[in-house]
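Entry 14. Ran structure prediction on the chain below.
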Amino acid sequence: MTKQGTDDLLTLAEERDAAEREAAAIATARRAMARDRIARMKAALDEAEIYEGTSYWNVAVLIAKVSENWEPLKWSLDRLAMDEDIGSGSGEITSRKRIVRRALKRLSDRGIIQSELKTVGVGRAAKTTVTATACRSVVTAGRPDARCEIMPDSMPTNRDNLRDNNRDNNRDNNRDKTGTTCGTKPGQMSTDTVIYSNSKNSGPLSPFGTTNREGEEDQRFLTTAEATAPRTARLMATLGWPNGDVKTVWQVAAACNAGMITDGDADGAAQMARDYANRSTVGLFRTKLAERLKLDGATLSRILNRVTMPGGFPADAPVRRVEPSKNAPAGKLRRADPEPAKMSERATQRAAQNIIRTLAKMELSR
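Output, structure tokens:
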């Protein structure tokens, strides 16, 4: 290699290192400002006698966490209802949306936030958008700014969801029944831009790859089917144990174990896929996950491909423990039958019409 080529490589390496340091500084600033907003919101909720653990508390804290510079939060009602921070034990989206609507009304009545719900379309095609803004004059009243809410010049402007990419046991928001919490302690919050997240405790996964000048490992992991199977089984249960190729579910489970995708995002996308899918539940699951993470399909594929498995990820569902029959040995494992697919309304009508025709023919033949 010529000297010119070596110099070019060194320049590229220095530019990459500078970009990584800038991204780390931006993430640190975002986390610090998010912690400050959350602390202010919690103080305002305490004064309004809205207590921790309630849906009102969870919704208000979520708004503070994702509203950079106290800008309005603009999410779909479905996305807001399925967010893990809401802390509802219900898996039904209708119930969760009802909880969110009630919480927004209560917070608006107390003057903590200003909210507006706008619905476009009718029937199943209806989409409701939530616009919620924290009343800064109320939230920050009597609380001097701990830091200036000014973003660096290079701060991305299209990322509105600060999300924890690491599992933790903080008690701040532990009402979520999915087993994943989203804490607010310093250092535990990170942006939803999973490209910059790096799990330091990858659990059953083994990190490998190059290291940069700060000694941090590249985001690539090696896992096994045995280590990934428990998380895959949880996602499959949320999806309703669909038939067919479930390689995507294995990949998402491995990415969750690596800390590149949060459990809340994966579980929320799986629940929405199960609620709305008519045919390809796994395909809709992948689409909903990309929408939830604000990524395109190619970027999501690159993230999932950062975790590899010797021999590739399985296409079949993992084995799950089921209730043994009376004649089967206790504790025996077998592959459970998938849940029967839900019939659509049209298919139900056709089946009823066929039954009526059959009965009519039987009457005529007598």
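Residues 3-184 form one domain. Will compare against last week's run tomorrow.
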